[in-house]
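User:
Can I borrow your eye for a moment on a structure tokenisation matter? Would you put together a sequence-and-structure record for a protein of your own picking? Please set it down just below, with no commentary around it:
AI:
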Amino acid sequence: MKAAAVDDSFNMTYNLFDFLQLIGSLGIFIYGMKIFSEGLQKVAGGKLRGILKGMTTNRLTGIATGFSATAITQSSTTTTVMVVSFVNAGLLTFLESTGVIMGANIGTTITAWMVSIFGFRFQITPIAVSLIGIFFPFLFVRNTKMKHVAEAMIGFGILFIGLEFIKDAVPDIQENPQILAFLDRFTDFGFASTVLFVVVGTVLTLLTQSSSAAMTITLVMLAQGWITFPIAAAMILGENIGTTITANLAALIGNVHAKRAARFHFFFNIIGVLWMLALLPVFMNFVDAMVINFSPEHLSVLDDSPEARINATLGLSLFHTTFNVLNVLVLFAFVPLLIKLVTWLQPSRGKEDEQKSLKYISGGLMPTAELSIDEAYKEVEILARVTEKISFSTYGLFFKGKEKQQGFLDKIKKREEITDRIELEVSQYLTSVSEFNLSKTASRRVRSMLRMINDLERIADIYYQVSRTFERMVSEGVSMPESANTEIQDMMQLIQDALQLMRKNMEGEYGDVNMQEAELMEAKIDSLRDELRESHYMRLERGDYDAKAGIFYLDFINRLEKIGDHILNVNEATAGLK
């Protein structure tokens, strides 16, 4: 009879359509968070990279850097993924990364305060809709900076509209007491219940792929009376563990240093959760006392009244911030020991494991397309520098003496292999970037960069072919008169001038290229090629060299002129013309 009574009580008023509304509301919130964060990152642009470049061996500075970067982007994921990428590239040491990771943990707590203050204590939906109305027209302006600000503000509005929808879509405990009864089944196991909800918080973060979204769901559940404050606190601890997973995934393709940085993030957070679990009852009493003394309502976070629940959301934000700040203070002195632990658990497998990969993109995609494109473009600039070095080595091969020829041949071969690898990895990366919802400008820039890396790699290939032809010429004992060598030297020097102009254009803003100067340089190369062909035929007529030497000479001149064509293509792509 008792079982039948339980079954009868399970006649909930909450149906499938209501549940779908809840999922949709959650989707709106996460989408708003994504747009808000991406807009902030676009507005920050170079400032964000400038902040991250300010990382030093001073851990205090690193903490400030991590906090600032996360506060600007509203995403600890952005900060930690960039840190792993920089460590993998050798731009940041493992030691330097530790402070930034600790700072990012504190920076991510700002989101909880924003949601708990604006989302529960004020009727913010009319303001959010008004914000969208104000900034929507700015999406269509030409000013890129203003457009990005508008995106951030619209994302902010959507975020809080989604939050309001979530609060309305969550089933009312009064009408559906069975939900509370269901959750109560898992809250009567003492410390085991706390650990269980730590796991729930971790899984929730993995499912939403956002600690901010998981935190907001926890705040809503607390405000609606689904869970008590101790359970919400346990879920927050789990979300601190879940947020480390993204960086660890990014490090899977990285070198040993990147893996160590990601492992440090995981161990730092999980050790913090362990000591907090031991002190959780004491710490919750401390938070409760703080809320009672300093909040206007003077209500305990442990009360079950609707007013107290709203107050408890502030208490949960205070718990989250205080825990992360204390964790940094407690573990700050133990960072060297943590580093030793992580190094022992993640040993190097040799030189290959220590090797730095591409400088900027080896840690994976950035959280926004714009940041990803900027990082990829830096790799394209590196490809251009390697290509220019191949040009210098080819010049040395011809004119720096026989004793140095083998050294230059080795350098050209090695650098040409590097250009092959860079082209492949950057192409794959840009293909992944194309899966973002790209703006028209971003899409055009990606296509331009794909064209650039193809042409730069072809320049390296041609120089390698020239070096192989030169090697064959020497092995066959073929020599050229002084006049022919001087002409080849003139052609190579003109090509080097063109490469330097190309590099200068690439260092400027996308689309801001003086094509008149680039086209004039290409015309000079074509004109010199025509003059040297005439010189070649005259030497043959005079018998200055035989037909075999003439074939080698003409091969060099034609290949060098082809390099000029590819240089012009790169300039056109930099200008946004191709």
